[in-house]
Amino acid sequence: MQLTQDQAAGRIMVALDYPDAAAAEKLLRELAGIPCYMKVGMQLFYAAGPAFVAGLKERGYHVFLDLKMHDIPNTVKGGANSITKLGVDMFNVHAAGGASMMQAALEGVDAALSGGSGVVRPTVIAVTQLTSTSQAVLNDEIGIGGSIADAVIRYAKLAKLAGLDGVVASPQEVTAVKEACGSRFKTITPGIRPAGAEVGDQSRIMTPRQAIEQGTDFMVIGRPITAAANPRAALESIIEELVV
Ligand SMILES: O=c1ccn([C@@H]2O[C@H](COP(=O)(O)O)[C@@H](O)[C@H]2O)c(=O)[nH]1
């Protein structure tokens, strides 16, 4: 797949996994002008809150709010309602919460949009199996039988049935998800490691180039950028890998 530099950057979601807004703002300054998505996860959201997210939107960033909601349907409906009013472009729930819970998230979105707040409809996706989960952990520790790939596809089909727009999965499962749910069903893939990068706690990984060749829609990348001595150079090198 041939991408321009801006197209490649637009497929990257930088995980702003920082303890406070000041640390995240430092990275934003270092990456200024590169048109990536920004992902706010629980560490930063619990510290800096909705105001930080609203600030990103005011400055024109595309924002994925990665809070992975997993609760009873009524609570998730309320959470989705509040998140939608923040104006984020994407948020997620856990597919393990079931179809009713995922549908409740969509009801929360609809209710927020019907309030005339002027916000756009966010893309709503479901986490399948965390990319840190290995086959052994799934079977022996969590106690779910079968292959990771089968579990991911089961969750993806359920998310599609519930009306969601896509899933979080590892790049290793992108092809199978697209086959099962259609090419327009979005795949958002963490577990991205440039060749030679530290794997850390991730289990199911691919390089950026491999992930794009699998057909991933967006790749989520944190530490290979944020822990680099020069985050901007690290991001530019990943973009070059995608453009070539
Ligand atoms: O299955 C999942 C779901 C979410 N994540 C998130 O993506 C980033 C990955 O960061 P790295 O530093 O590149 O490992 C992180 O924010 C996770 O919370 C995931 O890794 N796997």
From TrEMBL:
Family the UniProt entry places it in:
Belongs to the OMP decarboxylase family. Type 1 subfamily.
Q: Does the keyword Lyase apply?
A: yes
Active site, UniProt feature: D66 (for ompdecase activity), K68 (proton donor), K68 (for ompdecase activity), D71 (for ompdecase activity)
PANTHER family in the record = OROTIDINE 5'-PHOSPHATE DECARBOXYLASE (PTHR32119)
Q: Gene3D superfamilies of this UniProt entry?
A: Aldolase class I (3.20.20.70)
What name has this protein been given in UniProt?
Orotidine 5'-phosphate decarboxylase
Organism of origin: Paenibacillus abyssi
| Residues annotated as binding substrate | 17, 39, 66-75, 131, 193, 202, 222-223
Q: Which gene encodes it?
A: pyrF
Q: What is the catalytic activity of this protein?
A: orotidine 5'-phosphate + H(+) = UMP + CO2
Q: Which CDD domains match?
A: OMP_decarboxylase_like
Its Enzyme Commission number(s) read: 4.1.1.23
- Give one GO biological process term: 'de novo' pyrimidine nucleobase biosynthetic process
The UniProt entry, under PROSITE patterns, shows:
OMPDECASE (PS00156)
